[in-house]
Amino acid sequence: MSATEDFIVADIALADYGRKELDIAETEMPGLMAAREEFGESQPLKGARISGSLHMTIQTGVLIETLKALGADVRWASCNIFSTQDHAAAAIAATGTPVFAVKGESLEEYWSYTDRIFQWTDGGQSNLILDDGGDATMYILIGARAEAGEDVLSKPGSEEEEVLFAQIKKRMAETPGFFTKQRTALLGVTEETTTGVNRLYQLARAGQLPFPAINVNDSVTKSKFDNKYGCKESLVDGIRRATDVMMAGKVAVVCGYGDVGKGSAASLSGAGARVKVTEADPICALQAAMDGFEVVLLEDVLSTADIFVTTTGNKDIIRLEHMREMKDMAIVGNIGHFDNEIQVNSLRNYKWTNIKPQVDMIAFPDGKRLILLSEGRLLNLGNATGHPSFVMSASFTNQVLAQMEIFQNRDKYENTVHVLPKHLDEKVARLHLDKLGAKLTVLSEEQAAYIGVTPEGPFKPDHYRY
Ligand code: NAI
């Protein structure tokens, strides 16, 4: 790469291959293509400057090109060090969109790439963030607090934070006032995933959200599809590509039975594994039991299970004391957003043998070995290619609508966390029916009136849970 090029990818020569896959993905992403069709001419995102932090995959490539087709300028990084598909990054960079994403980038590179999505060549600011997990938002907000003199950088709580804080200090030294100026310029953020949304609600509760946020995750057509049906396809895909292990007959433990846990348990069960579930929430535990899974304590199945998958979005789920009890060659992986679900750092002193990228065998002092996937980072994107295009089309159509909503109607929104209205959620679903040959029944006026809706919808009250 020459110093003047405004992108960092593994190999720009992969662009042709990436473009072929983008062309195929477009045929499976009817929601995004319909958005281009409906809004391409009116250019509702003209003037939008979007900093995107979301797994740089082929599907994300179609999202980026949709945002651009609607008039936006875009800069992009991945939200995980292992999730980039290098051919996708190359194809997007080759069109002139600044992309900073390499599969297997270091943590230092990760945070410097996050910084780069805010560094416009004309020195201007971004007015929108499209985030997945909240890292891009957090980068700006923590930086701005540090510039205001708050003591937020002196005590990093982890190696990750140490690297993040170093990057913030570097930017503060190079561009005084950068974070405050950038924060002020932001109209808002749209957030993709459960973990990022949790962070936003915490910020809002603490009075620290300086702009409105749209919670894309809790559109029904996102979390009840991507988190569930997406993981149903991509979890086993990741385990197979990593290990080629025979799944049928194995005992698999899924920690957490929320949307991702439900999809993950279905994935393993569909592959013939005997699935057990751990849960903290009695409602989800009851769902797991009634879906036919044994609900257990992790402690009780450590020595008998072959595969362990965390899906909780919570920390310290599989700890060192658990891994000590597991059987030889047990497979351990996580599909939740962050890598703190498994205590990977506690294994660092043991003997690691790298089998191939994102697959490690770790030998304990007594000779027992574990197979660890993606160093505890989300394995469906680290060991495979994430969810299929079709389900990501639903997620990303919500993202496009959310970006448009904030850009056009920012003043209607208070500085808190919002979800898209139900009629848009239903619209996203509607856009995906034709592709599956699904035919929708039309309610008569009488039928609609009888159940208290209109024939055009919305068809459910907001409290309905699907
Ligand atoms: P959720 O909130 O629906 O489910 C998480 C479940 O874990 C809850 O039911 C909770 O009670 C349970 N849980 C929490 N602590 C537990 C513990 N100590 N032991 C057992 N269960 C526990 O969240 P959702 O939507 O399922 O997301 C989970 C994670 O996956 C989040 O980090 C989210 O961001 C991420 N995610 C990852 C995707 C991927 O492609 N890898 C796709 C979508 C979400």
If you had to describe this structure to a student in words, what would you say it looks like?
The protein is of the alpha/beta class and 466 residues long. Helix content is 43%, strand content 13%. The chain has helices at residues 15-27, 30-39, 58-69, 86-94, 107-116, 135-147, 159-174, 178-185, 194-205, 220-243, 259-270, 282-290, 298-301, 320-325, 379-382, 389-409, 422-431, 445-450; strands at residues 49-53, 73-77, 99-100, 128-131, 188-191, 213-215, 251-255, 274-278, 294-295, 307-310, 330-334, 351-356, 359-363, 369-373, 417-418. Helix 1 packs across helix 4 (86-94) and helix 2 (30-39) runs parallel beside helix 16 (389-409). It is globular, with a radius of gyration of 22 Å. 1,4-dihydronicotinamide adenine dinucleotide binds at residues 193-195, 223, 226-227, 230-231, 255-261, 278-281, 284, 311-314, 317, 335-337, 378, 380, 387. Keywords: Cytoplasm, Hydrolase, NAD, One-carbon metabolism. It catalyses: S-adenosyl-L-homocysteine + H2O = L-homocysteine + adenosine. Belongs to the adenosylhomocysteinase family.
